[in-house]
């Protein structure tokens, strides 16, 4: 169980880090991606983008 929390956390960190590139590709503006401003900072939680990219990664891993 803790392993899944670590994987999800790392995926969210990686996607947040790559969000400028993903926004140019159209990701990050999908329904279900949360973007809000709190304490003077903009926060981004890419829920739908994470699910979509993990689905694509699982398809690629099944093909390999």
3D architecture notes:
The chain is of the alpha+beta class. It has one domain (2-63). Helices cover 61% and strands 19% of the residues. It is built from 3 helices and 2 strands; from the N terminus they run ααββα. The chain has helices at 2-17, 19-24, 47-63; strands at 33-38, 41-46. It has a two-stranded antiparallel ribbon. The chain is globular, with a radius of gyration of 13 Å. The termini are far apart. The model has no long low-confidence stretch (mean pLDDT 83).
SSE arrangement:
Blueprint: H1 2-17, H2 19-24, E1 33-38, E2 41-46, H3 47-63
Antiparallel strand pairs: 1-2
H/E element sequence: HHEEH
Mean of residue pLDDT values: 83
Spatial order of strands in the largest sheet: 1-2
The major pleated sheet works out as: 2 strands, antiparallel
Judged by helices, strands and strand pairing, the structural class is alpha+beta
| Rg result | 13 Å
Approximate shape: globular
Instruction: Tally the helices.
Output: 3
The tally of domains stands at 1
Secondary structure tally: strands: 2
β-strand amount? 15-25%
Helix content: 55-70%
CA(first)-CA(last) distance: 26 Å
Low-confidence stretches: none
Key structural traits:
two-stranded antiparallel sheet; single chain; alpha+beta; 19% strand; DUF2905 domain-containing protein; 64 residues; DUF2905; membrane; globular; transmembrane helix; transmembrane
